[in-house]
């Protein structure tokens, strides 16, 4: 078990290093909007950290489920979400202003869903 966890951790660290190394260029794959690229580059440290955690957690969870501890794993997952996620997420996001800057990303999203005075691509095709 220890070898699998260490291997998974190393894979996560490698991907975290890649994300951090290319933090200013990683959003170019998905968007050409400069404001959105800047917003993504500001949260890449969080992305890297969650990548490491998400490489180790499934391995540990799978070992626990394989050992017959499904109830304990479900309780831990729910506890982490409701206790850690919600109770820490609210003050960090709203009281300490550490939330994601959604206003910067809203303009491209509005273009995608057609609420910026332009017609969506499919709507134009249907009228023709």
UniProtKB/TrEMBL annotation:
It holds the Pfam family MatE. GO terms for cellular component: membrane. It comes from the Eukaryota. The chain crosses the membrane at residues 6-22, 43-65, 71-92. Keywords: Membrane, Transmembrane, Transmembrane helix. One of its GO terms (molecular function) is xenobiotic transmembrane transporter activity. InterPro entries: MATE_fam. PANTHER family: MULTIDRUG RESISTANCE PROTEIN (PTHR11206). Belongs to the multi antimicrobial extrusion (MATE) (TC 2.A.66.1) family. This is Protein DETOXIFICATION. It comes from Oryza meyeriana var. granulata.
């Amino acid at each position: 078990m220890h070898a699998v966890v260490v291997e998974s951790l190393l894979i996560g660290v490698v991907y975290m290093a890649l994300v951090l190394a290319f933090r200013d260029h990683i959003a170019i794959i998905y968007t050409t909007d400069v404001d959105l690229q800047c917003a993504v580059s500001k949260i890449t440290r969080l992305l890297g950290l969650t990548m490491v955690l998400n490489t180790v957690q499934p391995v540990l969870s799978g070992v626990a489920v394989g050992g017959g501890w499904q109830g304990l794993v479900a309780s831990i997952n729910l506890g982490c979400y409701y206790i850690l996620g919600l109770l820490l997420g609210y003050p960090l996001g709203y009281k300490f202003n550490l939330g994601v800057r959604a206003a910067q990303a809203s303009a491209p999203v509005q273009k995608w869903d057609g609420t910026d005075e332009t017609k969506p691509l499919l709507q134009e095709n249907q009228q023709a």
